[in-house]
């Protein structure tokens, strides 16, 4: 007995309806990317291991899918490592390539490799799958798509302004209201750590602060004390624990806290510039919110940090994020290439649109009309009409077999095809078509021109 087929854990099959809905999101994002002047690039699904390894920390390295060398991969294996069963030492000798973990490191490699062909500032977008050997769970997969846009070669804060507009344009096009674009700045977090005497504990400080809305003020203070942050410094943080209100109001509070930190004040200046520009330009559906606890990718980002929250009515993590980095290509030897980028969380956006019933009905529209097959003569007559319908932008097809009428009608119903066309002897003689609306059962005999107009 044949074994029942299956797919690897953390991967998914998508049915026609799901693919159509995913394509709707892809096309919306891609359209916005191109409207804003971003150019598409693609990189290979796998890279040389040396390109990826060591770029994501120990945890990232562990989650990278390694590809075994072709042929007798054990022939060149490190025998000492093999005998000792030391996988870390063995892997480089049996695997020289790996599936990409994200789109950012391959993009950095692309910029360095093609720097003489690229016109800077370079605005690129990429919509491609990535792979991570993570433990699968709800909303987390081993194979998934990333939708990234970056600008490299410019320090201008107008780029951050445009990325906020880009987020707003995409979510407006998806009719997704109530989205919040949260923003912070790495310089502000560094400035706060400096002011409270915890500059050498920046990570500990921000990890604790990030938990404020989850565990509350007292627990955050306890965690900071346990990490060696002085009590005097924690007292200086008191205004942060209740920081809320309008963007401008929060900026004023931050100014009073960070008045002695040059780096912190620089971060405030950058945020104020972005907020003033967005206030002048306006947003369609999204809201811009300052969140001083936001600290994603702290070791990576050097300026603005973005995170996009779904509408409050949906329990969902972030549906987008990004920020400013000063040395994207430094890992490959090309120093001082500043950039800023954002990413859209396709799978989470899909779940949000599904839960809020925001997918347009036309998204899953496939075949609009099915021609019933009564035999070879009728089929040929029908195919001539179908050709004309297709030329007029109508999705049409012929049932391939001259099966029983009931079977063909059931096929149309199961595929939710709204119209069927019946062509028999009388229709061929009069050069007409009998159109049946499946939902109501109504029938009309029409010329080909009227048929096109009706559909």
Could you explain the architecture of this structure?
Helices cover 42% and strands 17% of the residues. It has three domains: 6-45 and 100-176 and 310-364, Bira Bifunctional Protein, Domain 2 (BirA Bifunctional Protein, domain 2, 2-Layer Sandwich); 180-308, Bira Bifunctional Protein, Domain 2 (BirA Bifunctional Protein, domain 2, 2-Layer Sandwich); 366-454, Anticodon-binding domain (Rossmann fold). The strands form three sheets. It has an eight-stranded mixed sheet with strand order 1-5-6-11-10-9-7-8. With 455 residues, the chain is α+β, with helices and mostly antiparallel strands.
- Distance from first to last alpha carbon: 49 Å
CATH topology description of the largest domain: BirA Bifunctional Protein, domain 2
How much is the average pLDDT? 92
Strand order of the largest sheet: 1-5-6-11-10-9-7-8
How helical, in percent, are the residues? 40-55%
What's the story with the biggest beta sheet?
A: 8 strands, mixed
User: What is the CATH class name of the largest domain?
Assistant: Alpha Beta
The best one-word shape is: globular
What is the structural class?
alpha+beta
């Amino acid at each position: 007995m044949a074994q029942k087929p299956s797919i690897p854990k953390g991967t998914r099959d998508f049915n026609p309806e799901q693919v159509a809905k995913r394509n709707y999101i892809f096309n919306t994002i891609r359209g916005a990317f191109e409207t804003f002047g971003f150019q598409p690039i693609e990189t290979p699904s796998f890279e040389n291991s040396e390109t990826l390894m060591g770029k994501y920390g120990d945890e990232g390295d562990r989650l990278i899918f390694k590809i075994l060398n072709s042929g007798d991969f054990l022939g060149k294996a490190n025998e000492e490592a093999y005998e000792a069963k030391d996988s870390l030492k063995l892997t480089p000798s049996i695997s020289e390539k790996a599936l990409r973990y994200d789109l950012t490191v391959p993009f950095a490699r692309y910029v360095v490799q093609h720097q003489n062909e690229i016109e800077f500032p370079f605005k690129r977008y990429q919509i491609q799958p990535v792979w991570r050997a993570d433990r699968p769970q709800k909303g987390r997969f081993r194979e998934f798509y990333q939708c990234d846009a970056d600008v490299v070669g410019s320090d201008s804060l107008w780029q951050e302004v445009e990325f906020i507009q880009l987020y707003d344009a995409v979510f407006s096009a998806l009719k997704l209201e109530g989205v919040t674009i949260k923003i912070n700045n790495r310089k502000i977090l560094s400035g706060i750590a400096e002011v409270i005497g915890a500059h050498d504990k920046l990570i500990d400080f921000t990890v604790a602060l990030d938990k404020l809305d989850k565990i509350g003020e007292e627990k955050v203070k306890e965690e900071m004390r346990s990490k060696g942050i002085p009590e005097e410094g924690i007292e200086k943080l008191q205004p942060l624990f209740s920081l809320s209100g309008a963007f401008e109001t929060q900026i004023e509070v931050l100014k009073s806290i960070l008045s002695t930190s040059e780096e912190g004040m620089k971060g405030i200046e950058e945020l104020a510039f972005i907020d003033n520009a967005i206030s002048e330009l306006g947003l369609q559906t999204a809201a811009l919110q300052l969140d001083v606890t936001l600290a994603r990718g702290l070791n990576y980002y050097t300026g603005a940090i973005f995170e996009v929250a779904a509408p409050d009515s949906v329990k969902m993590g972030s549906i987008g994020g990004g920020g400013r980095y000063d040395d994207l290509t430094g890992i490959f030897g090309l120093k001082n290439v500043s950039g800023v980028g954002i990413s859209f969380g396709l799978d989470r956006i899909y779940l949000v649109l599904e839960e809020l019933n925001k997918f347009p009905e036309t998204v899953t529209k496939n075949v609009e009309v099915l021609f019933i097959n009564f035999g070879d003569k009728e089929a040929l007559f029908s195919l001539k009409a179908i050709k004309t319908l297709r030329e007029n932008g109508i999705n049409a097809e012929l049932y391939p077999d001259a099966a029983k009428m009931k079977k063909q009608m059931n096929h149309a119903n199961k595929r939710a095809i709204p119209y069927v066309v019946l062509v028999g002897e009388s229709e061929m003689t009069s050069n007409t078509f009998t159109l049946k609306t499946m939902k109501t059962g109504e029938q009309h005999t029409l010329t080909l021109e009227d048929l096109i107009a009706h559909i």
